[in-house]
Each structure stands twice: as C-alpha cells, then as structure tokens.
C-alpha cells in the first residue's frame, strides 16, 4: 500500500552536522559527522550498512567514496543522487526503494553539500527568456507572492509571520544555521531582495550534512535494534511537473504529490501532526499548507496567525525551523527533514517537541520542477 | 512585413538583446513563439526539441508570431540582481492574448508600477548600444492607455 511494496520499512537512526555558513571544513568531515551520529543513534556499526545513497547537488561529482572511506572501506555500493533541492529527499527514497525491493536490509541516505559549484539547468539547456540572467530564484517566488496576496487578500506582514514562527522553532534546534528567534519587525527590516521579500524571508544556502538509516523488518530483529525507537516509513512519492496552465506549478505539483503520499500511507491530511516543508521563501509555507489540505484555500495566513501551525498547535509546521531558519544546504535538506520528523515521532525533540506527534510528513520541491513527499509514523 | 518596412523607412538600426525571441526591426515588438501542429499548444519562449504537452517532435513545432499584449498576472520589483542591470527594476508575468504565460521586463518608463489585472503591451526598451551606433533593444511592457467611454 505504501507504493514501496509489502515490506515494512523503518528509520532506525538519524544524525546531522549543523547547517552553517560556508567554511573551510571539507565535505567528508561534514558527512562523516552526520553518519557517525546516525550509526550511534541506531546502535549500528558502519560495517553493518549495506548500501549508501548520497543526496548532493552543489559540491562535486563522485564525492561519495572520498567521504565514506573514512568510516572504513567496506566495498558497499554507493552513488550520488541529484534532484536539485529534492536531492536529499530523493536519496532517502532510493534507500527506501532498495530495502523495500529486498536488495539490502540496511541502507543509509546521506545528504551532504557545500555551495562550491552552483549550476543552472536553464543555462545548460540553452533556454532563454526575456528576463534571462537578471533575476534570482527569489524573484520567481516574489512573483508568486504577488499573485498569492492578490488572490487571498493576505498582507505582506501576514506572510512574513512565517519567518517569525520558523525562527522561533530554530532557536530550539542546535543544528540550525539561523538560531535566533526574530520579531516581525526584524523580519520586515531591510534589505529588500525582491518583491515583498526581505533577507530574513529567504533561506540561507550554506553547508552541512544529514543522515538517515533505513532498515527492513527482518533487520530490526536480526540486528537486535530498538523497535521502540523505530519510525515507520508509510509512503514515498516522487512526481514531476506537468502542465497546469496559469495555476502555480509548485503548489499544483505539491497538491497532487501530497495527495498520493497520504493515500498510499492510509492517512488523511487531518491526521498529520508534524510537517517539514519547503519554505525556501516565506510565502511557500502558506501556499503549500493549503495545497496539502492542512487548511482551507486562502486561509493559511489567518490559521498561522491563530497559532495553528505552531509547536503545540493543530499541526506543527517546520518544527526544525525549516529552510528559512534551519537552513538549506541543498543535498542535506531533505534528509534533515527525515531526521526532524523521526526525532518528533520518537518524542525526543526536547524543548521543540510537538505533543503526541504520531504522523509526520516531509515535503521538498526541486527546480525543474520535481516534488518528493514522505509520510512517516510511530506505531 | 508592413511594420518591418516602416522600420526600414525610418532608418532605425536596432539589435535584439535576445535575437531568438523577437525581430528588433519590427515597428512594435512581436514575439517569436511556436505552435504545436499536433495539439495546438502555443509556446513562448519557443521550444524546438519536442512538445511538452503531447510529445510531438520538432517538425510539428511551427513558428507563430505572438502579439506582445495581454494582462498582468503577477509583478515583482528586483532589488538584488546577479547581472549588471541597475536596480531596482520590475518584472512581470503576463498572460498573452494568444495564451502563453510569459515573464518579461516592465518598461522603465512605468514609474507607478504595474498592477495585477492591468492590460499591457510591449514597447521597445533600449538597454545598450552597439559600437556601430545602433540601439540594443528588448520588448518591455507598459500599461495600455485607459479607454474612456
């Protein structure tokens, strides 16, 4: 039913290297830190990991082995998974598919990146439009924000409030790149970047790493792993853009991908307790909670203001701080969402714990466009 | 053709900033779109490899001139640009009368900003000069004069 076949899949260990501004730290150091933390969390040794999928998009070709060798060269299959901002989510999905197919019983998904090599698929494809290289991705979302405000009547201040909430969550997350809680005045302060967006309404692109270990049901028993801390993978869906006319394609793609993931997981939107979603820019969170069916169309701004998406609210959104405040190092981001949901569903999130979190949903979109959604739950 | 002829008569020398996307010698900007002969979908910017809607091959994608006129769908100012273009400037998404949703520059002469729902059309905007003295131009959108009844 999960879309992954009939085998039960479990996340048994997660780990992170803090997301941070680009530094001199080599990427193997970032990645190995996250892997060692995930192994310790799972109670596994590297020699028990049978295959590795590395989500990465901005560092270098062929980076996996130069990282994993520092854990002991065991000869396991390893490869890079690139899917833009959804690279980490897609690496996690590949690890799930691998275990679900019965190829291996212990797979690790790792996201690692440093912003060394940012590329443009539009440029590579020889695509040219009337605006060309004069705008950054932020303007795409600034256009979208103008449309959202026009369609819903939401104000710039109501949209900026997303960054206030997510910065408050990140202040409780030791892995966050922007760990400071911000007031609305701070979020709205210059510099303006594009449209309604100020700097603090745009995610920081930095570096970091995240790891998640996926195991089969039989591995849980044969390796003597702690079932009480295992989080079930209930569904994994990856979709790509089709033609939506003048409708916003990020939101339309999110709506159809989420609907499939919820159906395959056997849960409804109202049963979701914690959500990690792609809030690269503030307006996206409002668009996507509506597209996911977590609130009525056009009502996200008022639901946010009423605290419905707070930790302790109706459904907690971006308890990690999201891309806006935890950061968006690209490859790690989707795996980091799985780490946050796993921590929440185990009730181990400490001061940022959402009470009684049972069902979690992770969502990333990637330029192109693609969308990945995973549903996890505690049993 | 008539427009091109008029342009020649005016002895205007213009170069396109994006040669594939429009003919700079036309009197008013016209956009080089394509139409899929198999499913009828209209594209701008033009695509050449195959149709996104029906998968028809390149030989089914036929040139179609698109009048640069339509309605503003979204608009945003740009304060931070990776190019040398002086900021701020504005870009807009426009639903052309021929169908496609395009992204384009708002004309620098528009000082009060375009609004969603405004009817607009393109005029030439000079964004540079060739060494030989000609203007480098692109289409940029202005609000249509309001028709008073």
Outline of the structure:
By secondary structure, chain A is α/β, with parallel strands linked by helices. Chain A has 13 helices and 12 strands. With 149 residues, chain B is mostly beta strands.
Characteristic terms for this protein:
heterodimer, A: 379 residues, alpha/beta, ten-stranded mixed β-sheet, two-stranded antiparallel sheet, 13 helices, 12 strands, 35% helix, globular, B: 149 residues, mainly beta, five-stranded mixed β-barrel, three-stranded antiparallel β-sheet, 1 helix
Task: Tell me what the structure shows.
The complex is a heterodimer of chains A (379) and B (149). Chain A has 379 residues and is an alpha/beta fold. Chain A is built from 13 helices and twelve strands. Chain A has helices spanning 27-42, 64-68, 87-100, 121-124, 137-152, 156-170, 184-188, 217-222, 249-265, 282-291, 300-305, 322-325, 331-345, and strands at residues 9-20, 51-55, 78-81, 106-113, 192-194, 197-198, 207-216, 231-240, 274-276, 316-317, 359-366, 370-377. In chain A, helix 3 (87-100) packs across helix 13 (331-345). With 149 residues, chain B is mainly beta. Chain B contains one helix and nine strands; from the N terminus they run H-E-E-E-E-E-E-E-E-E. Chain B has one helix spanning 2-9; strands at residues 14-16, 30-36, 42-43, 61-67, 69-78, 89-96, 101-106, 119-129, 135-143. In chain B, a hairpin with a 4-residue loop joins strand 6 and strand 7. Chain B is globular. The chains are: A alpha/beta (379), B mainly beta (149). At the A-B interface, helix 5 and strand 5 of A face strand 5, strand 6 and strand 7 of B.
